[in-house]
């Protein structure tokens, strides 16, 4: 099946791009272009949460295949997403409240939390894609999904590459994170397809499971984009006081969000 190798290559390219700064100094984490790339990928994350994952959760948890009470009488999607975002905030708070020697150590802990949470959210999204692939018998639809998800995984890889780079893991751990990203994505796709085969597209069990996973993932993605990435980058010391960088940051965020929103037509 062409889907898995195509998506594997796309995700590998995406996650590796930001590590090229050793060979292309302009891509270094302290350079302006890196900050612009980071805001662009933050826009991608935000649109993924709002335009791809959250609507799917609404569809799953309000499906007519589920009993009206309680599934269509309570907004489970937004409730789960809200609590998922709270959970991310609590985890970050616990890490940042630990006694640290300096601000650099505190920032390092924060970046590592972001990297790990980003990876968890990405795996959940890949499981959902696997379910979609498994549910479709139309070859045209499958080809469109593969193309859309290749671009999605390229963007996801770029998104995850930033937090991994900022987390300043040791070289060996960096490579483990980079190499494990495309592998876990393929695992998620295979798992999603297997769940679909076992339970069926309209099975109440599959709908509830995937609806809850989607809602959790949406909460993670939205919180990571707005709180941990955009707020830090757009209101950080590097951009504050520099109107040109501020405008570039907002434009990059909009482009990232607009591109991923457009992909919602096919994905």
Q: What does this protein structure show overall?
A:
By secondary structure, this protein is mostly helical. The chain has one domain. Helix content is 80%, strand content 0%. Helix 2 runs antiparallel to helix 4 (76-97) and helix 4 (76-97) runs antiparallel to helix 5 (103-135). The longest helix has 33 residues, at 103-135. The chain is globular and about 55 Å long. It is found in: Membrane. It holds the Pfam family Zip. The chain crosses the membrane at residues 6-24, 36-54, 74-96, 116-135, 177-195, 207-227, 247-264.
Classification by helices and strands: mainly alpha
- Put simply, the count of helices is 9
- Ends distance: 18 Å
Give the biggest sheet. Answer: none
Binned strand content = under 5%
Amount of helix: over 70%
Morphology: globular
- Strand-and-helix sequence, N→C? HHHHHHHHH
Number of strands: 0
State mean pLDDT (0 to 100 scale): 74
Number of domains: 1
Subcellular location: Membrane
Membrane topology: Multi-pass membrane protein
Main location: membrane
Protein name: (thale cress) hypothetical protein
Features:
single chain, 267 residues, mainly alpha, 9 helices
Short description:
By secondary structure, the chain is an all-alpha fold. The chain is built from nine helices and no strands. The model has no long low-confidence stretch (mean pLDDT 74).
């Amino acid at each position: 099946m062409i889907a898995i190798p195509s998506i594997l290559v796309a995700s590998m390219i995406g996650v590796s791009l930001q590590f090229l700064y050793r060979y292309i100094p302009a891509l270094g984490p302290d350079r302006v272009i890196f900050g612009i790339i980071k805001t662009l990928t933050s826009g991608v994350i935000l649109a993924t949460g709002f335009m791809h994952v959250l609507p799917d959760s609404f569809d799953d948890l309000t499906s007519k295949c589920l009993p009206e009470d309680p599934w269509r009488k309570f907004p489970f999607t937004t409730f789960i997403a809200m609590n998922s975002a709270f959970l991310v905030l609590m985890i970050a708070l616990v890490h940042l409240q630990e006694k640290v020697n300096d601000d650099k150590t505190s920032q390092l802990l924060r970046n590592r939390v972001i990297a790990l949470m980003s990876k968890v959210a990405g795996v959940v999204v890949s499981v959902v894609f696997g379910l979609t692939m498994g549910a479709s018998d139309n070859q045209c639809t499958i080809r469109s999904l593969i193309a859309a998800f290749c671009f999605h995984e390229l963007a996801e890889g770029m998104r995850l590459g930033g937090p991994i780079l900022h987390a300043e893991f040791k070289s060996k751990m960096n490579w483990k994170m980079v190499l494990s990203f495309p592998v876990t994505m393929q695992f998620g796709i295979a798992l999603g397809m297997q769940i679909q085969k076992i339970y069926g597209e309209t099975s109440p069990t599959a709908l509830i499971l995937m609806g809850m996973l989607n809602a959790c993932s949406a909460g993670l993605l939205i919180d990571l984009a707005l709180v941990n990435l955009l707020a830090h980058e757009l209101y950080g010391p590097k951009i504050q006081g520099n109107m040109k960088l501020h405008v570039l940051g907002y434009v990059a965020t909009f482009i990232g969000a607009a591109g991923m929103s457009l992909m919602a037509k096919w994905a």
